[in-house]
Amino acid sequence: MEIRQMSERAKSALTNWNRLWNGDPSVAEELLSKDFTCYFGADAQAEETDAIVGPEAFVGFVASFREARPGLTFTDAGHLYADDHAVSLWNAVAGESGPIGGVDVLQLDATGKVHRVYSVTGSRKLSTS
Q1: Which InterPro entries would you find in this protein's record (predicted)?
Q2: What pTM does this model have?
Q3: Contact at 8 Å (CB) between 92 and 75?
């Protein structure tokens, strides 16, 4: 696969990843591979979330996550991509809580779907400037 093709797929994956986390489950089937997994570095229930496999299960997780955090909004703080990996730098705010930031590393399969994500959330907003 050409690097340019993967770069376009990585860009699309990053855009749809943000849309999914902002409450648009319609992108999940196109975005996530059937054996998709996500590992959260700061998750207190890591065993529970590590067991989530596939688009349908992940959409359910995101919906529950958002329901517990009314007004949750993710914004893009920057993207990096190369070969079969894409990195999303993001910020989020929910209700009156202060902004937080995080980094998600997306591993794409040969078709450009996201196969695995490693996600780490910080306690402050990220800036790329």
Answers
A1: NTF2-like_dom_sf (IPR032710), SnoaL-like (IPR037401)
A2: 0.88
A3: yes
Hey, what are 18's tokens? 């943000």
Q: Cβ contacts of residue 103 below 8 Å, gap of 6+?
A: 87, 88, 89, 90, 119, 120, 122, 126
Angle, helices 55-67/3-21, rounded to nearest 10 degrees: 40
Checking 42-50 for CB contacts under 8 A at 24+ apart, the result is 42/120, 42/121
**Is 66 contained in some domain?**
yes
What's the CATH code of the domain at 37?
3.10.450.50
Going by the DSSP 8-state scheme, the letter that residue 83 receives in this structure is T
CA distance 114 to 34: 9
pLDDT in tens, 59-118: 999 999 999 989 999 999 988 887 789 999 999 998 777 788 999 999 999 999 999 999
What's the rounded Cα separation, in Å, for the pair 114 and 106?
A: 6
